[in-house]
Amino acid sequence: MRLYDVELTSRFWLGTAGYPSPQLLLDAVQAARPGLITCSLRRQGQGGNDFWGFLQALGTPLLPNTAGCRTVDEAVNLAFMARELFATNWLKLEITGDDYNLQPDPFALVDATRELSREGFQVFPYMTNDLVLAKKLLDAGAQVLMPWGAPIGSGQGLSDLNGLKALRQRLPKVPMVIDAGIGRPSHACQTMELGFDAVLANTAVAKAARPAAMAGAMARAVDAGRAAFLAGPISARELAQASTPVVGTPFWHQEPQ
Ligand SMILES: CC(=O)[C@@H](O)[C@H](O)COP(=O)(O)O
């Protein structure tokens, strides 16, 4: 898939926070071969340059994020730091508006997206699944959107299926990556079957009993869901319909002998 003129090799993206050890993170990356990995400058700063160097050495495209920021100014300052550290204009913009469910602040997101886009950043805003917010973020300069599946770390999967379907249907050409709340490979597969462009997961992999095995399963689920979407799945029906409606007609368009 191509985003902001960069080709990514996988539609599964992996967060790098909270693994039991660097080795298990490395194993997860090798098992999943994600299209990109994220890096939280604020939250993962304790390891400092060592950790950031470790991530860069993985050789996977890196998407720095502003997790932990609560204001436009904080996020913008961190964005400039990320650009300097990682030599990239890509930025996953996170601005928390509510501490209970870590819900993004829609107003601050729009303001920060406008300011950062003006400064040449290529912004990936982490947002709720609100259609009007999506349009305003696009107007502000974002070309990719990252609606939540459910609150970060909850593992609930797609908690507002109708809202997400509406978002996909109303903005069919906008690249959209479902970020947060993915708990299982089935959630990732369902996301892709709905026609979303990619999936980002962190907690479900980092906190799994075997992170590398889960990372691999997630990546395969994303591939399967994408293949199913492209294959044109049938619509669910309320009533039964015999698979072979007429005796002796193996193909539906064949005239009975
Ligand atoms: C990794 C990242 O960038 C975050 O947005 C978040 O941590 C992802 O959510 P989950 O941890 O629920 O997958």
Automatic annotation (TrEMBL):
Keywords: Schiff base, Thiamine biosynthesis, Transferase. Its EC number is 2.8.1.10. One of its GO terms (biological process) is thiamine diphosphate biosynthetic process. It is an enzyme of class 2 (transferase). It catalyses: [ThiS sulfur-carrier protein]-C-terminal-Gly-aminoethanethioate + 2-iminoacetate + 1-deoxy-D-xylulose 5-phosphate = [ThiS sulfur-carrier protein]-C-terminal Gly-Gly + 2-[(2R,5Z)-2-carboxy-4-methylthiazol-5(2H)-ylidene]ethyl phosphate + 2 H2O + H(+). Pathway: Cofactor biosynthesis; thiamine diphosphate biosynthesis. InterPro entries: Aldolase_TIM, Thiazole_synthase_ThiG, ThiG. The keyword Cell inner membrane does not apply. Catalyzes the rearrangement of 1-deoxy-D-xylulose 5-phosphate (DXP) to produce the thiazole phosphate moiety of thiamine. Sulfur is provided by the thiocarboxylate moiety of the carrier protein ThiS. In vitro, sulfur can be provided by H(2)S. This is thiazole synthase. It comes from Gallaecimonas xiamenensis 3-C-1.
